[in-house]
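[09:14] KT: can someone run the structure on this one? pasting the chain below
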Amino acid sequence: MAVMNLVHVNGADLAYDEAGAGSPVVFVHAGAADRRMWAAQFDGLADTHRVIRYDQRGFGDSSDAVGDHCHYEDLLGLMDALGVGRAALVGCSMGGSYALEAALAAPDRVSGLVLICSGLSGREWPESMRARAAREVHSAVPAERLRAYAARTRAPDPADVEAMALAQARFLVPEPSELVLDMLRGVFQRTWSGPQRTERHLEPGPAGRLAEVVAPTLVVNGLLDVPEIQEVSGLLSAGIAGARRLDLPDTGHLPPVERPDRVTAALRGFLAERHSGNEPRALA
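[09:31] RB: done, structure tokens below
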């Protein structure tokens, strides 16, 4: 049974759950979520692996992100604090980008890499995506209130939090569940009310360094995800040597929540190959 704990990492208290025994697997949540998004995979792999899921600073039950911070450094610091020398990293959306940064910064610490609908820090989103997000998401709340929330000069209106969570959920996921909506409510409430912060990334960034990745890699793509995010899946699967790609039909940006059994089965197969040393099998 998982028990939520807190660990102090790089000046922040990070909330995490841990269960099972065996080769470690660390789950890194999406920027539109928190550690709850991994419920099915966390429970499904605990019989064969030591599984760890955590809330990044500024999310879920972890402390606020204040000032200068770096998420991939927090990920490696979490592993240090929990005595994890080497682990498979499973990241979704921006969590995938942080896992990728960690794999480049400390390749000896990463036994495998699963990048699910991943972001790619250092790569600018094209204008087509910015325009679509402005039209379909940001328009849910009047621009003057969005500016006030960004400047922290106005407390978040619960109605605006709800409206933005619903708009973001529909932008990312064809049929958003209550869990997806609840995670997004928490994201916007924290983002609009928490302290100002500055996020650092790996330098030089991963966008131009994919050929340096040595960890066995699985790229998971939702075929109903935002097209520009699917383009990143293509860059990752083409740029990382030996990477395999799994395309999931009828799936948006959060496959671990939308297709929990399919994602858990894919992870189980991928991790079994890493443990056995067998050649990768094709994924249907």
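[09:33] KT: thanks! The radius of gyration is 18 Å.
[09:34] RB: yep, looked fine to me
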